[in-house]
Structures are given as structure tokens and as C-alpha cells.
Amino acid sequence: MSQDVVFQDVVSQDLMSQDVMSKKIWIVLQHREGRLHRMSREAIAAGQRLAAALSGQAEAVLLGAGMESLAAEASGYALAAVRVIDDAKLASYTPGGYVSALAPALRAAAPDFVIFPHTYQSIDYFPRLAQEVDAGLLPEITGFDDATGELLFSRPVMGGKLVAQVRVKGEGTTLLSVQSGAFSADAAETGQAPVEALASEEITSDREILGVEEVGGDQIDLTKAEVIVALGRGVGGADKLGPSEELAKLLGAELGASRPVIDSGWLPRDRQIGSSGQTVAPKLYLALGISGAIQHLVGMKGSSTVVAVNKDPGAPIFTVADYGIVGDLHEVVPALTAALEELSD
Ligand SMILES: Cc1cc2nc3c(=O)[nH]c(=O)nc-3n(C[C@H](O)[C@H](O)[C@H](O)COP(=O)(O)OP(=O)(O)OC[C@H]3O[C@@H](n4cnc5c(N)ncnc54)[C@H](O)[C@@H]3O)c2cc1C
């Protein structure tokens, strides 16, 4: 049922017409509460691989206030340098602050590629940064390939139904973000990088952060669940969860969900699975009415057996499913429940 269709798209710079030697790659690291974000390590792995492919140099960039220990953590990776913009005005993230800090530095250093982890924070400001410095923009890459001698980036399009292969054209800088789980954090090579200050101009913030509130308290730990019944938008509403809950009970399963289910308030936030939710690896993952967007897949692709129910035979969830049922879940779920009840009689 594989539906990966690859087509080619050309975004901005003609990489292959340029000298591929000594390319400069920046990796902008995200952090919170004094620790690097997990996806920052994935971005480092991506940057190191890209630098190796281009015979170039990868450097990390850190923004914030009081950055000594974070700079020390980042300097433990095999990077040409860790460049730090340390300024009290960057104590809290604001899009204006980050854009005003990074834009002059990017204009001055003109790196070929700038890698960001594809997080809510990055996508909040890096398109604006690209526009500010007139850079190419390549969001959400899941990999790159230079086997043919031409560098091609992959990124999902149309909700993950297609994979676009993108060749970068033209001169100048390209900003790209790396999808969660696309590069393994464990693949980031360790080393000892020098820490240097990165000069910037006046940092101007366009908003004031009054406080940050953590959503959720007593989280359900789905990472330990052996069986998960995961519900997607296809379930159709909070009032239609009953049959799936009954099936989950029969299977001794925890309920999980895709993001729209959570955003619509049908289930609490701690049930979310995916790049901005929990990463799970149960023995059985039953996906009901879930399309299989990349942000969902990265959170569940470690499941041993995946069973997907979807009325669209082209849904990307079927690319990771061991068993696929093409049909209306409102008919399939009661039928599964009845069959299981019969078996246990
Ligand atoms: C930065 C970022 C982070 C994100 N993080 C996450 C995350 O952590 N987790 C996550 O899940 N998403 C996340 N998303 C959202 C993600 O891109 C998708 O929008 C989301 O996963 C889609 O959820 P879905 O499959 O439930 O809905 P849809 O894409 O709307 O799919 C619904 C599916 O249900 C099927 N369907 C409809 N009716 C029926 C029926 N009666 N019977 C059977 N099938 C039916 C349809 O064919 C369709 O395939 C994130 C997005 C961004 C940009």
C-alpha cells in the first residue's frame, strides 16, 4: 500500500553549479531551561552529515542570555565552532528578538545553509528571517541524498501523501528545518568545539513575555503502554469516541490521539502522539482515522505491529501499517469489537 510518490521541485540556489568545497553550514540550536532541545541534537546530526557531504564546515549558533553552560554542552559535539549571541534581550524567546539578532549575523557571515529543528518555535520566526535576509526557505526536510552527485532534499507535501525532492538553485543562503525524528540524535558526533561570541547589532523585541505556563500536569505515560488505540480526526467528534473506547478496554489498551483530536478538545493533551506529543513503541498500535502525517508517524513508527483503519486507500498511514483495513471506522470498530468478544467467549 506504499504511496510514496516522489516528484522534483526546484527551490532556490543552484548548488551544483557552485563550488561545493568549503560550504558553511550553521545549525541554530533550540534550548529550554538550560538544556538543549532533543531536536537540536538531531539538527546537529543533520548539519554534520550535510557538512560531510559538501566537504564543508558545520557550526552551531546559540541565542539567549547567560549561555555559558549551554555553550559548554554544545561544544561537546564535533563542530567547527559554537557561536553565541548572549544578550539579556534574548532571555525569553520572541520572534522579533531572534530575527533582529540573527539577520545581521547571517548577512555578515553568509553561510550556505542554516539548519533549524522543525519546532513550533522555529516555524514561528524562521520564514520571517528568510524574508528579512532574502534567503531560500526549505522547511521540514526529512533527508537528503547526494548519491547521484546532485544534492536533493526530501520533504513531505500534501499532508505526507507525496515526497518532494528539492534541488536548491541560485546563490546565497538557504534556511532549512529538519523534521523531528528524520535524523537520529544518537548519530550526532561528539568532539570539542571552540566557543566564540557571534557579533550582532541592536536586538529589538516586538513583544514582552509575561510568563510561560506548562500545559498538563499529571501526564499519562504512553511510552510504557503495550497496546495503544490511537484516534484521529476521522473519528469525527468527542461524542463518537464510545465504540473506540470500548475496543480499547477490550484490548487492555491506552487511548492515544493525533493532534487535531487534542486541539479539538476530544481527548486531553497528554494523549497526543507525535513530534509535539509523546513518542511511543507499543507491541500493537491501532490507528483509527489517522491520515499518517509525518509529525504523527515520528511518534509511533517504533511500534512493533501497526494496524490502520482508514477510508482513504491512499492515506500515508498505510505506508507504515503491517495490516491495513480500508473502510469506515464506524463500521470496522464495532465489527472488530464483536469479533474479539467472540474470541474471548
Ligand atoms: C510543528 C507541528 C507539530 C505537529 N505535531 C503533531 C503531533 O505531535 N501529532 C500529530 O498527530 N500531529 C501533529 N501535527 C499535525 C500533523 O501535521 C497533522 O495535521 C495531523 O497529524 C493530522 O491528524 P489526523 O491524521 O488525525 O487528521 P487528518 O489529516 O485530517 O486525517 C484524518 C483521516 O481520517 C480518515 N477518515 C475520515 N473519516 C473516516 C472514517 N469514517 N473512517 C475511517 N477513516 C476516516 C481520512 O481519510 C484521513 O486520512 C503537527 C504539525 C506541526 C506543523
Q: Your description of this structure?
A:
The protein has two domains: 5-197, 3-Layer(aba) Sandwich (Rossmann fold); 222-344, Rossmann fold. The protein is 26% helix and 25% strand. The protein is built from eight helices and 18 strands. The chain has helices at residues 38-53, 68-74, 95-109, 120-133, 242-251, 259-263, 294-300, 329-344; strands spanning 5-10, 24-28, 31-32, 35-36, 57-64, 81-86, 113-117, 136-141, 143-145, 152-157, 162-167, 174-178, 195-197, 227-231, 254-257, 284-288, 305-310, 323-326. Strands 8-12-7-2-5-6-13 form a seven-stranded parallel sheet, sandwiched between helices. Strands 15-14-16-17-18 form a five-stranded parallel sheet. Helix 5 (242-251) packs parallel to helix 8 (329-344). The longest helix has 16 residues, at 38-53. The two termini are 34 Å apart. The model is unreliable at 1-5 and 14-20 (pLDDT under 50).
How is the largest sheet built, in terms of strand order? 8-12-7-2-5-6-13
**Topology order in helix (H) and strand (E) letters:** EEEEHEHEHEHEEEEEEEHEHEHEEH
CATH architecture of the largest domain: 3-Layer(aba) Sandwich
Helix count? 8
Give a quick account of the main beta sheet: strands, pairing sense, barrel closure: 7 strands, parallel
CATH superfamily of the largest domain: HUPs
Cα-atom radius of gyration = 22 Å
Name the CATH class of the largest domain. Answer: Alpha Beta
Q: What is the typical, i.e. mean, pLDDT?
A: 90
Question: What is the percent of helical residues?
Answer: 25-40%
Spatial shape: elongated
CATH fold-type name of the largest domain: Rossmann fold
